[in-house]
Specification:
alpha/beta, 3-stranded antiparallel β-sheet, Rossmann fold, 7-stranded parallel β-sheet, about 350 residues
Length: about 350
Amino acid sequence: MMRGTRHNIPDPYIFFVCEKFLENEGATQIAKWLRDQGFTTVTRERIYSLIREGKDLGYIRLCPPEEMALNRRLAAVFPQAAADISVLNVQDEPGAVNHLTMAGAEKALVLVKELGNRKDMVHIGLGAGGTTERFARHFASLLRSQTQSQVPKLVLHALSSGFAPRHPITAPVAFFSYFMALNLDIDYMGMFSEPVVPWNQYEAVKTRTGVREAFEAAEDIDIIVSSLSSRDDEHGLFINFLESNETEAPRARGILEEAGWCGDVQWRPYSNKGPIMEDIGARHVTLFELEDLVRLSRTPDKHVILISGRCVQCNTPKNTALLPLMREESLRVFNHLITDITTATQLLNNVEDSAP
């Protein structure tokens, strides 16, 4: 939500309503306080809707506990991941992704402040998709409470132009609107290319005006935020891209499946053994290959946050797509992982089931 008023109640008063409620003031008492401030029509029943609005604005945040035992078990079973792992004790209901993306936003803010102790400017790359869109909303909400003295100047980068004509909000440049009303110094770097180009034209496309600038600035990015998709999830953006061309889809799928395709990170597919680089006729324009993300995750003062919950639309699990990223060093595309208790348990079960 943007700053302003909701039903004639300005944001600061919504904040005070939440604060008073958490300090055990009753709804009747809070409603009387609001009427004394000039909001003469407020009733005690209205207080509860204002508290819900305050939660939407980020004034109240629900922080699920971390499952520390699973954090340690994942780190022990997958030492090659060498990642900062956060397992949140939320179940696999559709709303769990909101808790994961809020945790990702809090992690990003901590990293921004740490980098800000050494740099005047911090660059953040945002990938496409519903999970990252939720991250962007939460991150903007957290930044609302910050002043320019608390955070460095920020530059937000779009990692791709997205690919969902009926769901344009999943394109990274659309996320920028969440940050426009913040009283902070923020710049933006968009990606203005066709979302998909012929495979043999990709290198030429990267040199075009509107695209070249994004690639030239890619190495400035300090923090990357992404999710992943499973080949089993019909709502995955990569799968939607494959199915969008009915003529080429069978051939492309055949090539990918023969290569052992199990998932993708920001449009780049992979198998259990590593990235899939076969020519499938067309490909997305995206700033980083999987090997670039691996390199960045191993570079001091570079951070790749991977948020791995279930599909935001159908709740399809992604543990089979996450498992290769945990096991295979050539796919270690992150150094911060945020996931839920169900996904973590399934990962450990997958390892036990495959043990000799």
